[in-house]
Design goal:
The protein is α+β, with helices and mostly antiparallel strands. The chain has three domains: about 15-160, Creatine Amidinohydrolase, Chain A, domain 1; about 170-315, Creatinase/prolidase N-terminal domain (Creatine Amidinohydrolase, Chain A, domain 1, 3-Layer(aba) Sandwich); about 320-595, Creatinase/methionine aminopeptidase superfamily (Creatine Amidinohydrolase).
Length: about 600
Amino acid sequence: MFESHFQSFEEPESGVALTARLSAFREELLRRKLTGFAIPRADQQQNEYVPPSDERLAWLTGFTGSAGLAYVLIDQAALFVDGRYTLQAAKQVDGNAWRIESLVEPPPERWLETHLKAGDRLGFDPWLHTSSAVERMQAACAKAGAELVAVDGNPVDAVWSERPAPPLGPVTVHGVEFAGESEASKLGRINEELARLKADALVLSDSHAVAWTFNIRGADVSHTPLPLSYALLPKDGRPTIFIDGRKLSNSVRDHLEQTADVAEPAELAPMLRELAKTGATIALDSATAADALTRLIKDAGGKPLRGADPVALLKAVKNTAEIDGTRAAHCRDAVALARFLAFIDAEAPKGALTEIDAVEALETFRRDTGALKDVSFPTISGTGPNGAIVHYRVTRKSNRRIQPGDLLLIDSGAQYQDGTTDVTRTIAVGEPTAEMRNRFTRVLRGHLAIARAVFPDGTTGAQLDTLARQFLWQAGIDFEHGTGHGVGSYLSVHEGPARISKLGTTPLKRGMILSNEPGYYKTDSFGIRIENLELVVEKQIDGAEKPMNGFETLTLAPIDRRLIDVAMLSAEERSWLDAYHARVRETVRPHLDGPTQLWLDAATAPLES
């Protein structure tokens, strides 16, 4: 009945079976006269989703999380992961071959300082690290009396005999009806930023920035319509896009050539070298530009100018067409969500459904819209103790049956051509405990505090983050992830530079779309998260002395009333939630069949005291 076209539930290779790869890799290091090597979970552009040909860390260690780093020395090896992946890493890697360490505190370079010896030679691939990451490794090597060595040709690739070929996903034009602005207009705005930076040229090393600037989309990585590519934008003259020509149809090439020259990726380095020879100042994105680019510019006599990619902020502020498209995408998604939630309510209490069944059902309801391009990330479907694993990904081995008394946490999203969605709901299966209702209501109150927030121009995500945590803190609890991330327009579901977190330093601007997703996780018991996407909008306040902003909630899906302790809510919170549910009902009900309409009526009824 249900199936998944975009997600796999197979268990990745892991553990002791991979230890032979580590031995072969060490032999290759010795052959190159290296005593160690750094392996990041990264491609040349620091993408969140990387093509199979760049999954070097997973191939060598077995760890498949989205963030990680390994240091391999001849006599020992360490894998560094953040708090989201500690449990996952322990299950996936061979504990006899690898130490699992923190990616955050202390920083991985500290490990190098204590484990490298004087005279050691630590290798790294300069195409897979940013310059700031290389500088941190350089400092650690210096403290240990070791040498940091940039290598030509990655030694992992030398022993990875079955490495997949790089992707050749076809590129499509993202029409102006979706993009809302022509390429020429965008290039004009970027040129203004170039003048402000006093740069002679800008390298777009982030493929998302290339896709946005030139109104194209691709199919090179999972879950994000990304065409892997670079662009060089000079202060004067035509820009050049560097992309494998095999990805381009004649019509797409014609589209690109209206505003830019098109060249093969291998031509980037020589063209950049020629420009640098003139002493040009060339701006680079410090977050995504490979250290190899900085080195190339310096060695040729140019001046690399590292900083924030100016396109990131331009891309984050959505225009009218993108906002209208995103609203339409969320309305479409809401119908699929309502059908899914009604299905779960009817079937889960019987005890036959599993986590995978839930993933396949939700994807099927989304495909039924006729507009689904992909899921925007692998669906997190965790019931009972699996729900407490923040970035849990169900496999056939871990697949758990959904049982009465459980909470089901399901975090999912869709890629539609007019917008990207991301939504989390926590569902009570059977009768929830008093503890579950208390924790859920505290998370809900934090969620509502963000949704109802009013703030002046210039406010950052860090200033709002506390609002989401206050009711959890009052009970001595918290959650170990950010409250919200930026979201693209038929691009990455995790988009910078703005976010709602302790580290969110970018001011929130009207037109930005961010998630609002506080949570609570009780290890080995249950997990709770409530997530909607929010659009930053103007707020009119009588007597206001400065411009004020707030949020328009884009996501339209019932929040489980059975998990709410109504007595804990203020009158204002109850009023907001009742109005939200009325809006969900009014928007979604006409698109549902009779039984699902009745379910929605009950799920969105006003709260009772």
